[in-house]
Amino acid sequence: MFRNRCTWFSIALISVLAMVAPQVLSQGFIDNFNRPDQDGPPGDWTAFRGEWTITDGSLVGESSDFDNNTLREAWIWAGQPPVELSSDLEFSFDMNFLTDSNVGDLNGRHAGVFFCSSRPTHRWDREGGINGYCLDWIDRAGDRGVRLVRIDGGDQTPLRNAGGKLRGPPLHWRVVLD
């Protein structure tokens, strides 16, 4: 079902402050963020957009416009440089939003992971022809819940939307691909 091409793993935080903690696991890459607070992204991650810190043992990201980022998205890739993983992989992480669902835009809280990526960029990269999959949470009324989206050349195709009746996003996430 998933492509057997180069695979990168990214955490994407979109429009809101969010936290991924305490552990991110995938084959060949483990980080529990168990180190002193740090301004700026951890040295073994590749920040693509947004502002990243380690705070209280968690990776914390926030979208910003300091890089003329009109999409207001924050992206960070596992590894420095980003690691390539087999498409036969398993990863788990905890994701906790630091804001409530009323963040002032139509999307509300929105964050997730990008995997089986053709290159380390962002999911809207039509110019670079990005391909891969995004698993995320969104508060938007039309598709609220957990979504699995396939990205082909930057174009997005929703494959599955679930969890709309949940009171909020799940804390513990696990993805298994084979």
Structure summarized in a few sentences:
It contains no helices and 14 strands. By secondary structure, it is an all-beta fold.
Topology:
Blueprint: E1 10-14, E2 18-26, E3 29-31, E4 38-39, E5 45-49, E6 51-55, E7 58-62, E8 73-78, E9 90-97, E10 110-115, E11 131-138, E12 145-152, E13 155-162, E14 172-176
Antiparallel strand pairs: 1-8, 1-10, 2-3, 2-7, 2-9, 4-6, 5-8, 6-7, 9-14, 10-11, 11-12, 12-13
Care to describe what's here?
This protein has 178 residues and is an all-beta fold. It has one domain. It is built from no helices and 14 strands. The strands form 2 sheets. It has a 7-stranded antiparallel β-sheet with strand order 5-8-1-10-11-12-13, with no helix packed on it. Strands 2, 3, 4, 6, 7, 9 and 14 form a 7-stranded antiparallel β-sheet that branches. A hairpin with a 2-residue loop joins strand 12 and strand 13 (155-162). It is globular, with a radius of gyration of 15 Å. Mean pLDDT is 78; it is low at 1-9 and 12-27.
Order of strands in the sheet with most strands? 5-8-1-10-11-12-13
Query: What is the residue-averaged pLDDT?
Result: 78
Secondary structure tally: strands: 14
Give the overall shape, derived from the CA principal axes: globular
Overall number of structural domains: 1
Q: Count of DSSP helices?
A: 0
- Over the alpha carbons, how many angstroms does the gyration radius reach? 15 Å
State the separation between the terminal residues, measured CA to CA.
Answer: 8 Å
Order of helices and strands: EEEEEEEEEEEEEE
- Give unreliable regions as ranges: 1-9, 12-27
The amount of helix comes to: under 10%
**Fraction of residues in β-strands:** over 45%
Biggest beta sheet attributes: 7 strands, antiparallel
Structural class: mainly beta
